[in-house]
Each structure stands twice: as C-alpha cells, then as structure tokens.
User: Fold Galectin from Elysia chlorotica.
Amino acid sequence: MICTKTYSINCPLTLTTLSPVHGLPSLAQCISMSGSAFVCGLQCTALPQCKVVYSHGCNSDGSCACSYCNALTDVAFQDNHVQFFLHTTEIGTNTNEVSFPNGLVAGQPLLMKIYVTGTRITLNFIATMGPSAFITEIRFDEGSVVSNSYIGYTWGPENRYTPNFNFYQGQELSVLCVVTSAGYKLYFDNVLFKDFGHRWAINDISRIKISNTGSGVAKFLSFSA
Assistant:
C-alpha cells in the first residue's frame, strides 16, 4: 500500500504528500525503475521537483515497474481504472489567496477544493505587476464558464467553452489545473473546461486569488501545489 494524504497509517510523514488520482496521466521528465508505486514514492517524495508517481503494474512473474516524473502534461480522466499519485504540498486552507514567490513552472499540477457561492466566481492568476495572466469565471447569471487574460496591458479574446454547467451554490468543487509549456488545462470535477494558451510568462505569476460577486464568500478550502 502506498502512503498518501488519505492513507497514512504507519507511514513516514513525508510520504503523506502524495494524492491519489484516478485517470491516465501524460508525463514528462520521468525516471523508470523496477518496483511498485511505493518504491517510486520513496524516490519522488525526497525530490521537491518530482510531481507524479505512476505504477506500470506487475507481470505474471511478479516483477513490477514504476516511474516518478517531474512534469504532468495531461490527464485522461475517462480511463478511471488507472491510478497515479500527485506529489504536492498544501500551501493554503480556508483562504482566498495563495502566493507563488518563484512563479509557476511547466509540468506543475495545482490541486484545489473551492467553495462555490455568489453570482460569479473568479479564479485569477495574477502577475507580479498586477495584470491577470489567466482568469476564469463561473457565471451563474449566464450559465457559462469564461476565461481570458491580458495580452500586454489589454484584455485578449475570451474563451467561452462550457462543456456543461452543473455547478450549484454551496458546492465544494474539485479543481485540477495542469500548467504545461503551452498553456493551462483546467479541470472541474475531472471534466476539462479550459485548454488555454499562455499569453503571459508563467514564472511571473505571483498569486492565485479567488473572489466572487453576490452573496457569500468564495474561498479555497484547500490548495496544494
């Protein structure tokens, strides 16, 4: 049994930074070795730059293989019979803002649980000097999810792709944002809502903030990176 945030009995504390995810990951910058996910988990949790642990399974002769990787590039959540593990650190709970002093990096997964309330809920990736490098709004007044960002110091074209609108007031929404070299892949409850190309350098993003209009206070119930 691999040690995770949700299974930590008799586990070294460092190994409980792993979060299980059901889906088939696309990975980069990997090292593969013989052994189970537990073996690769030991390697990954000792390396701050490691982001993912993935088991390739075991053969009929009992030999197993696994990988630990520095970059996650995508997740096929429809392949939910597969499991992998994200190596992240919790950086905020019950807050509306988290900081990234060194910016974001390609291959980085951002795991969030957000509290949904109000007319519009805004997830805002903010650059050092203040512009919105990537912003996504859940708009109850329109029944849509809209993303945009500044290009230079003016707003660019909106991305209004909304595969469904099943959100509700008081929801605790699971969010995964995969930061790739090309853009952001934003998943709400394992559904890809945005594949948004970079318009601003990711290493210049210093804060991620959640806010809302209307009643209540939207917040990050948890945020791990």
